[in-house]
Amino acid sequence: MKKKIIGIDPGTRVTGYGIVLVDGNSFEPIDFGCIRPPPDLLLSDRYQIIYEGLQALLERHSPHEMAIEMPFMSKNPQSTLKLGIAMGTAILAAKMCKMKVFGYAPREVKSFIAGTGKAGKFQVQNTVARLLMLSSLPTPHDAADALAIALCHASQPEVVYFENQKTKEL
Fold first, then answer.
1. Residue of 23, 45, 52, 69 marked catalytic
2. Which of 32, 45, 148, 152 has the smallest number of CB atoms closer than 10 Å to its CB?
3. Which entry of 28, 45, 142, 158 is annotated as an active-site residue?
């Protein structure tokens, strides 16, 4: 059964997205890129731009599920909070479209894609390009990360839903 998955790498300055069509063990890139709110705007206005940008993508491509990178705890609590709100904004856009949302830790995605949770940006870009048979590296790296998140989710075994706590559904 074919399924479209949108991967999201949330951020307040750059939110990467990548949409992949999955058919068994076959992956086809549909769209990828970034939403870039102007950095001089208020945070609340940037969140609105992220929400509206994702809403437009979800309406255009009608993915079945969203996979999103979970924020890691940084040394700066304000950065973590801002990133968490960007993530919540993306989740809200998906939930308004009645989509299921699944979260993945950055190390988990890197480990799946590159074989190590400490993979660098170039290693992730290179592996994503190879897996999706792209003629060049997906850029910017936020879009490559989003494609990696979608591929990581696509590789998961059939999901047992949230009632018995065995999934990463948010």
1. 69
2. 45
3. 142
Number of Cβ within 10 Å of residue 106's Cβ equals 17
> Token pair of 168, please?
């990463």
Q: Is 142 noted as a catalytic residue in this protein?
A: yes
Identify the CA nearest to 147 among candidates 64, 11, 24, 34. 34
**Residues 6 or more apart from 77 whose CB is under 8 A from it?**
none
**The one catalytic residue among 9, 40, 65, 169:** 9
Q: Residue 160: which pLDDT band, with cuts at 50, 70 and 90?
A: very low
Note the pTM of the prediction, 2 decimals: 0.91
